[in-house]
Amino acid sequence: MKQSLLILFCLLGLPVAVSQAAEPPLRVACIGNSITYGSGIANREQDSYPAVLQRMLGDGYVVGNFGKPGATLLLRGHRPYLKQAEFRRAMDFRGDIAVIHLGINDTDPRDWPNYRDDFVGDYLTLIDSLRAANPRVRVLIARMTPLTHEHRRFRSGTRQWHEEIQRAIEIVARAADAELIDFHTPLYPHPDLFPDAVHPNEQGARILAETVYSGITGDYGGLRMGILYSDNMVLQRGIPLEIHGMANARETVSVHFNGQRRKTRASATGHWSVRLDPMEAAEGLTLEIATPHRRLTYRNVALGEVWLCSGQSNMQFRVESSCDPLDTVAFANPSLRLFDMKGRWETNNVAWPQEVTDSVARLEYFAPTVWQPGSREQVLRFSAVGYAFARMLQDSLQVPVGVICNAVGGSTTESWIDRHTLECAFPDILTDWLQNDFIQEWARQRAARNMSRSTARHKRHPYEPCYLFESGILPLDHYPIRGVVWYQGESNAHNFEAHERLFKLLVGSWRTYWGNATMPFYYVQLSSLSRPSWPWFRDSQRRLLAEIDHSGMAVSLDRGDSLDVHPRRKADIGYRLCRWALNRDYGFDLLPSGPLFRSAAGKKKGVEVAFDYAEGLKTSDGDAIRGFELAGADCLFHPATATIYGSRVYLHSPKVPHPVHVRYAWAPFTRANLVNRDDLPASTFRAEIGTGITPQQQE
């Protein structure tokens, strides 16, 4: 009958609809443990990552959830996945695509310490089984989701074993010629998405679904660049220059800049990079980056020197609020470019609305910005210290200078350190941070006040350990910089011993992030202020010079204010930071610092103190030297009479016939007045006589 009608329609010239068999949907098997299953998610049938993935992929796919809570990859583990009913159902499903996320439960002390040698072989057995069920199966294996520091076994081995398993998974991917996707990186900055330290919540599950969706489809949102790519940007001169970004999987990417052309192909995970040969300083350039589907053009690009200015409120302090003469510090300079990352909300003593705390939890603390030429208007709103540093640098080098500023008022040192560093080297500071004495009480109280309206169990705040690294450093996406200038410490001055550990971790963290073990790091010593712990803190900062290579310290005690934590004379501080850079990084023959204590030796009737950078010792006001004290074995200090002889200072005190200790500028607020020929002040110090700390030994 159908054939007769077809013939009749053809004879009459009528259109005939030809039906085609629809392609069957692709089957996606999600294999894993309780995280795949959706444990801890109230409505896992709708909100587990496989369920969300199904909605993202649409009708052309059928997604199966074969997660087994508690399952191990290890066959000799306490609950081997290959021996579970979920595995048999996955085999029957015969997926065209298999997404595997296993290994979390293998961190159990019953498993990994005993059977770690089996892991790669057991994983390959699982993959072979999937390929036997469907020889054309496409296998994606996932780097594991994070375990947060709140996990009960985190410090007893779980953290280390988790990292070892991650490396084993990467070996499996290569050995099995499987695709490797990353469940770890997108979730690692979000411990708040893990209510029990193991299982991501609904928001975390969505991030996993998005990761798998991109892995399956190759859709990574097309050509994208980091936040620092905009018109007026400054790229670092004189180094092999890496330009990198994201594109859809395996898209061709072309880069054209300053006569150099490069072409590459994005990886399966969407990442791409090209390397340009070193270039000299220049302005008015155009950078073009293109794929077959999108072209990005950046105009008025410069090649020059790029520095990051960071810290807390004294770095954030604006030019317009300083008492430096504005006619000398604030003027238009198009060769100076500013990238000013300002917080969207101040950390004032107020309760933030719920919508603010929600945004902060999403790491959306900094407002979007772009590079701006140094107009007077932009300068007035920029960091006074950062601008003075940049202005002196640009004036000295006569090349374009770009300055990135992301300082946050009140921020703590630990908030700027990456999570992995603190997990490994200082895990105690991560625990219950709002009640943790390692963190300054003022900072904890202010954070609690800001977050008091938040209903979240895990609250996020800029003062929280790791937060500003995750919201303010990670978005910089390894943008090439020459070095860092840093002004912070007020929110850690209660515990200089902890700060000594944290500051070294901070410098190491950033150098690791930028892949530059010798990246210059120049910082400001705290000024004078009537807070009892500050002499100890200033001396601790001085001693760190000997422990951190390629560092320098700008002394600011002569620019302090006894009652104001924000002294208003900022330009000199920026210039002092710049002297370190000009001397150490650009070969200028100038003193980088005021006098820094080198040694103290007992002499007949007194003590001889030697300094580095002591050329032309004098007093800042022409008066007698103030600020030196001596003590005997009892550590009771008495004022000492000081006399300059060349580059040394001789001390004596009739009240201390047998000196054992010496100190200088040892007061919270000090009017100590020793300077060198360039009027740069000497640093606070405390030492035993007969000992010395020589910062220049680091060179």
The percent range for strand residues is 15-25%
Approximate shape: globular
Low-pLDDT residue spans = 1-19, 693-699
What is the rounded Rg? Answer: 31 Å
Topology of this structure?
Layout: H1 2-12, E1 26-32, H2 34-37, H3 44-47, H4 49-57, E2 61-67, H5 85-93, E3 97-101, H6 112-115, H7 119-133, E4 138-143, H8 158-176, E5 179-182, H9 202-217, E6 234-236, E7 241-246, E8 252-257, E9 260-265, E10 271-276, E11 282-291, E12 294-311, H10 313-316, H11 326-329, E13 333-340, H12 354-361, E14 372-374, H13 376-380, H14 384-397, E15 401-405, H15 419-425, H16 441-450, H17 467-473, E16 483-487, H18 496-513, E17 521-524, H19 534-544, E18 551-554, H20 571-585, E19 596-603, E20 606-612, E21 618-619, E22 628-631, E23 637-639, E24 641-645, E25 648-652, E26 661-664, E27 674-675, E28 685-688
Parallel strand pairs: 1-2, 1-3, 3-4, 4-5, 6-12, 12-15, 12-16, 13-15, 16-17, 17-18
Antiparallel strand pairs: 7-10, 8-9, 8-11, 11-12, 13-14, 19-20, 20-25, 21-27, 22-23, 22-26, 24-25, 26-28
Helix pairs in contact: 4-9, 7-8, 14-20, 18-19
